[in-house]
Give the backbone structure.
Amino acid sequence: MRALGLDLPGLSRKTIERRPYPPGQHGGMRRRRPSDYARQLKEKQKLRFNYGVSERQFRRLMVEARRGKTETGIKLLELLERRLDNVIFRAGYAATIPAARQLVNHGHFRLNGRKANVASIRVREGDVIELRERSQKLKVVAESLESVSLMRPEWIDFDAEKLTTKITGLPDESSVPFEIEVQLVVEYYARLL
């Protein structure tokens, strides 16, 4: 996060407030103006690190976003926000996206009544995500639900009594919880794909 120069809420609850300069021996020194390529790479890495997506997965998402009818950048952000691990993080069940991914991989959630243990499943409008009965006593989930790190977006409807989440709409570019210039990501991949 220090190398990128901003807080990524999906990656960690920590902030760069205490040390807002890049890591390393020369982190505090003045830097020269970054090249266009450096700016594009930085924006891509922000998305990759926040959502915990490998380069191969990200490239696949980019190809899919290009095929869509909407703008490529907006579609890419929508595809990233619709991942099951991200939805579980945004609903407040986990403190970070890696923690949400682990909960999913261990089979603690049901998607539309069926066990879901693949973090990259893409949710659709009308889907219902519920915490399995035996998992409702997990200390990690209880602590996370008490202190939600981000506000729940308007496209997620959370029921605290039943511990269920309903997807009421689709995310847009304003759903991303940090500043991103998605056009630079599109430009980065324009040369590669």
About this structure: The mean pLDDT is 91.
